[in-house]
Amino acid sequence: MAVNATGRYDDQNVFAKILRGEIPCRKVHEDAHVLAFHDVNPQAPVHVLVIPKGKYVSLADFTAQASDAEIAAFWRAVGSIAKSLGLEEPGYRVLTNAGPDAHQEVPHLHVHIFAGGKLGPMLARPGN
Ligand code: AMP
Is the pTM of this model over 0.85? Predict the structure, then answer.
């Protein structure tokens, strides 16, 4: 179910549970500020989620509230994960969903990294 990206942070969201170790994940990367893991329902041959460890609902919440160190660590991690997974040369796509129109399902900021084959057009037609 799509969520409101402007609401309060919900400590019971699935990524909060992953960060607390209550739900397992297939970890790709972890540092002081960032965790990355494989999506449980991949939409491409490579589908990795990158999340900040802090409690941020959306990209707007993150960029407004997070420290410069958290923001730098997050985007550095996105780039370094793409590089370490060997995605730079064949190519990859980075995407974040915010709010109901974008079908954000988990109210904890996450960036999707898609790769592993031709990814097709950037967006589905409206209504899909
Ligand atoms: P979004 O629609 O942008 O909020 O994407 C949420 C993503 O989280 C979806 O691609 C789900 O497949 C993924 N997801 C949900 N639960 C888990 C989980 N326990 N482990 C890994 N990925 C998950």
Answer: yes
